[in-house]
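re: ur msg from earlier - yeah i can do the heme C complex, just paste it... oh wait u already did. ok heres what im feeding in:
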Amino acid sequence: MGGFLRRLAGARRWRHAAWPCAAVLLISLAAGSALRAAHGGQSNDADPDGERVGGDTTVFATGRNAFSFPAANLSDEERTRFVIGNSFFRRNWVQAPSSTQARDGLGPHFIARSCGGCHVQDGRGAPPELRQGKHEQPMGLLIRLSVPGTDAHGGPMPEPVYGDQFANAAVSGVKPEGEVTLRYRTVRGRFADGTPYSLLKPEYGFRKLAYGPMRPGTMVSPRIAPQVIGVGLIEAIADEDVLRNAQEQTDLGGPIRGRPNHVWDAPTQQMRLGRFGWKANVATVAHQTAAAFHGDIGITSALFPDETCTVAQRDCRAAPRGAAGRAPEIDERTLGNVIFYQSTLAPPARRGVQDAQTRQGAALFHAAQCAVCHRPSYVTSRAPLPQFSSRALEGQRIWPYTDLLLHDMGPELADGRPDFAADGRQWRTPPLWGIGLLHDVNGHTRLLHDGRARGVLEAVLWHGGEAQASKERVLKMNRSEREALVKFVESL
Ligand code: HEC
Ligand code: HEC
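and the outut:
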């Protein structure tokens, strides 16, 4: 553990040091001016439509594997590292003890056996399917738990018996924490032109709780696994750009007032600007990856060395450990390779950017103020932890369509569960890139934090709070305008 953290601490010093050489300074200045051009909407580069959403990292890919390619500009050595990391993302971990010590240590409690079990094809999870009134236990959706109060870093306070997320699976000999229940309530409405619509509002609960009742007042936040393309590029957006988004929204003086999240980052042992997760509750890809191994699969690492078993879960604490009992269950090098893999997954290029309907939709997207929150473009700076990323991601003009800020989205979307600076009504604007390829990759288009929306239009119809006026603009659109708006979003 010491080595890992020491190396990370070294990286931190390096980042805070003055720019190491003049060449880098020049690049950063050039990037800054390109960014200002993008920001003012007067882009003068060769890609005004943002077809190459990840700049030089962009891959031209559609179909089932569209989310699974490395950044197009990686070196051969980096590609090899990507492939190694990929194998540990996809393959299942197994129960200890086993003959494959490199991959044992699953659980004792877990939700899925691999990263790819939830981020199927590097894509998106879905809420549990209902079949004949019964539903399967969730996998691509996890349920975060907490009780009032905060932990030592201002983060959520875990439920004392069940911890900070509900594990509905366990290795043999250990009880799963219980079962998740799900019901849907139908919400109906009409567009201004009279066309009716109906939405599904999920209500989650628990049954067969294995370790007794949860503490009264436990707060519950269901979240689906988002697609993981381009996360290294998002990590390389400069903090100042995100903070400037908040300032610009404040200056507009309207209801849209995004706020940054500030969260504890285990790899760098400091508070940082939050970027990942549905509430911007994680700052770095390294933290997200190590925390997912730990919380979702039950694999310990130097950063999270203890199993997730709580004091009350005696069977969980007594279960055999992986890696023949040598902690941690995933070694530093392998963890680093998975982080690198995550960071260098490329976003796929847009499709049909010249299409007339798509262009009409783009204009409607801006007119409806969608772009205030779903900010189109940035020029990347450098990765905070360069040992897990690639210089190939630096200085790229990217088009993720997010401000990375938290917004009050109204009572219908509220989970009532704070997460660092995010309150119970705030959510991070999710990046929209790749959204039109979800159907190719995952065979579904379940959107929003809990996957309740069955497509782009439904997602917009759930927008409220700071986005209420945007939604009202959409309600007033006629059918062909609605179709154009959706077509544009699905071209991203
Ligand atoms: C049980 C399902 C599940 C598993 C297994 C899982 N994830 Fe996730 N992942 C999620 C969910 C849910 C979120 C959103 C979390 C939140 O909002 O707090 C997420 C978020 C992420 C993000 C942030 C994406 C973004 O744009 O915000 C990354 C990166 C990620 N996961 C990587 C991984 C890696 C790497 C692994 C394996 C070590 C993994 N995940 C395993 C469900 C899962
Ligand atoms: C006030 C900021 C804001 C505005 C304005 C806004 N959005 Fe969003 N959008 C969000 C947030 C925050 C979420 C995530 C909400 C959630 O998951 O509960 C979201 C989610 C979405 C999603 C689902 C993304 C996913 O990955 O599941 C789509 C699609 C979307 N918005 C499109 C639009 C369109 C189109 C408009 C304009 C009509 C718009 N948004 C206006 C903040 C905004």
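cool cool. The two ends are 41 Å apart (CA to CA). ping me if u need the other ligands too
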